[in-house]
Amino acid sequence: xxxxxxxxxxxxxxxxxxxxxxxxxxxxxxxxxxxxxxxxxxxxxxxxxxxxxxxxxxxxxxxxxxxxxxxxxxxxxxxxxxxxxxxxxxxxxxxxxxxxxxxxxxxxxxxxxxxxxxxxxxxxxxxxxxxxxxxxxxxxxxxxxxxxxxxxx
Length: 153
What we know:
Helices cover 67% and strands 11% of the residues. The chain is mainly α and 153 residues long.
């Protein structure tokens, strides 16, 4: 493989490291959730509903970055498990309000504990200041990437 002359040796794009880190931490999170009997998809929906409360289905889909049919399948699965419920939205016959049930809140608690335990193990021994800096820098990088993407069209 020939290296481009304009590329300095040892160049390692930040996106590569972010991707490797994301994959490794996602695999750890998936394993923790699987041990607790759930999937990442279950977790993201429950954590969103826990943080925001009941949501109109289309707003829930938007907040998760999903399209309608995908979120419907996920809601159907969680509703069948008794973790969420749909109800009518007054004044809008086409919309559904999605909320966590008592069983969903209990399940969220179990999953939260599994995720928290996994994160404590992951970050054990890392200076808290370094973790704060990392989180801040990653948020800045994500914001800049979104802004640059928007500029590019």
